[in-house]
Amino acid sequence: MNRRSLLIFIGFLLIVPLVIIVITQGGFIPKVGNATHDPPSINDIPEGQLGEAILRGRDLLHDTSNILRSEAASIEDGEKRVNELTCTSCHAGNGIDENVSSLVGVSGVYPIYRDRSDNIVTLEDRINGCMVRSMNGQPFPEGDEDVKAMIAYITYISKGVPIGSEPEWLGKNDMENVPTPDVAEGEEMFQQTCITCHASDGAGTGPNTGPALWGEGSFNDGAGMARLSKFAGFIKNNMPQDDPGSLSKQEAANIAAYVLSQDRPEWQGHDDDWPNGGGPTDIMTKELREQVKNDTIDWDKVLGERK
Fold first, then answer.
1. Peptide bond preceding 240: is omega within 30 degrees of 0, i.e. cis?
2. Cystine design at 57: which of 142, 150, 187, 211 (Cβ 3.0–4.6 Å)?
3. Residue (of 171, 61, 58) closest to 112 by Cα position
4. In CATH terms, is domain 42-157 a member of 1.10.760.10?
């Protein structure tokens, strides 16, 4: 290497780090920890097939049960396909409400390892997990146009959230250190304050206005909401709709325990979940529901060690 080439090479080594510093410090490259909840408007979707898929995905999230049931070959097939809920029953505002299980940024999280299944899970897998658990129905076939549409919509509303970031709004509804619930108090409060939307028998008044909380129209006991810590956290942060966050942890835990002690569809795959052990103890299975009714439940065992 001659003297001129050597000087050019040394200059290159000095300049590149400076350029990187300027770009990163200047904000030209988004920092993984700086994710902001700012989904694009549905009015700005692209034209053509992608735009059509995004709109179809949005509609499926908003009106899941009605759409899938109406497009089934028969009423019976529709009822097997999906229960009476919609994705928006949990993911409010078609998945863009920052405070209610937002889906913004979710597309950048997957694929991910999940210990519940002990494998790598794609976004399509995750959607199908909701279909068979939360929606107590059937999964979309591999490569189905509807699951593609849902992924297209979730990807669209996740625009601007860096891949690999950990948005603070994801997973915010889990309750830590759940207090020992009082099911009787939960029933009393439910009948006083929750029946306007969810009906006294828990059957609900509508999938997006007051979804079914138990019974055949609701989620099965393999869904995330069947965990006391998750359901109590959801209630604490988001209920009642006209005054979210007004309930105490104790009140939320009481209501959650009452609701989850009611009969609901049973998940047939409990034995296959967490194959390596270490699964949560607060899944309100049929066995635990019976223990609540018989007043033999050990809440300390269900809730584990609490501070």
1. yes
2. 150
3. 171
4. yes
